[in-house]
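From the methods appendix. Each design record in this collection lists the tokenized structure first, followed by the designed amino acid sequence. Records were kept in a plain field format so they could be parsed without special tools. The example shown here is representative of the layout used throughout.

RECORD:
FOLD TOKENS (226 positions):
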């Protein structure tokens, strides 16, 4: 069972060492008791926040092969019809999930299939829950294809986030619910699916990466190519 994600283990070690050094000098050299306690509490709280941010709980994906799960923990902030002109070039539905700094930030594949598309885009750092952040912020675009369908999803950096982790290559096999990366310190993911999919969430819903079903392929559409 993982406690800290491999995508942030080095960061946790780095800040823990810094915290120990600061605590040592605080307890050794700061003579004012109130200030000594204040600095100690601040260092401990910050260290606990960093450890909590990089936590990596186990998740159990659904056995149903005809569903799309959320790639991230967070809150559904947008559901809209769009034209996806980058990967499968058709009308689509976009579901956006906002991750606060207190959510688990490990990202997981929303469906099983093969990575058919990957692109990293440099950009701005607008607040991630703003709709236009999907088009202007730093982000990755990841396409997964099955025999039946293609979907596209995006990791989008926010105001606080400054690093997207996505060690992905085209041709790689993806398995629903499997870890594939993360975004550091608050961010958003967009999932773009064909319009025939049934959306299983509504605005304001809280979802968990790898477990919460956000879309389903209707039985009448199974076997139809996207």
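DESIGN:
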């Amino acid at each position: 069972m993982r406690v800290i994600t491999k995508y942030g283990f080095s960061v946790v070690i780095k800040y823990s060492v810094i915290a120990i050094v600061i605590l040592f000098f605080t307890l050794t050299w700061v003579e004012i008791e109130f200030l000594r306690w204040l600095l100690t509490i601040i260092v401990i709280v910050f260290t606990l926040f960093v450890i909590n941010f990089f936590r990596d709980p186990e998740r159990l994906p659904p056995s149903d092969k005809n569903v799309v799960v959320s790639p991230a923990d967070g809150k559904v902030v947008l559901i809209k019809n769009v034209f996806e002109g980058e990967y499968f070039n058709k009308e689509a539905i976009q579901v956006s999930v906002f991750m606060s700094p207190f959510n688990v930030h490990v990202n997981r594949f929303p469906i099983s299939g093969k990575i058919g598309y990957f692109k990293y885009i440099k950009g701005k750092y607008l607040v991630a829950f703003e709709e236009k952040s999907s088009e202007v912020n730093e982000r990755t675009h990841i396409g997964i294809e099955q025999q039946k369908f293609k979907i596209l999803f995006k990791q989008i950096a926010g105001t606080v986030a400054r690093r997207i982790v996505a060690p992905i290559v085209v041709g790689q096999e993806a398995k629903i619910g499997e870890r594939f990366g993360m975004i550091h310190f608050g961010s958003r993911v967009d999932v773009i699916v064909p319009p025939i999919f049934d959306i299983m969430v509504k605005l304001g819903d809280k979802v968990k990466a790898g477990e919460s079903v956000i879309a389903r392929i209707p039985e009448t559409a199974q076997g139809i190519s996207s």
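APPENDIX NOTE: The domain at 67-216 is CATH 2.70.70 (Glucose Permease (Domain IIA)).
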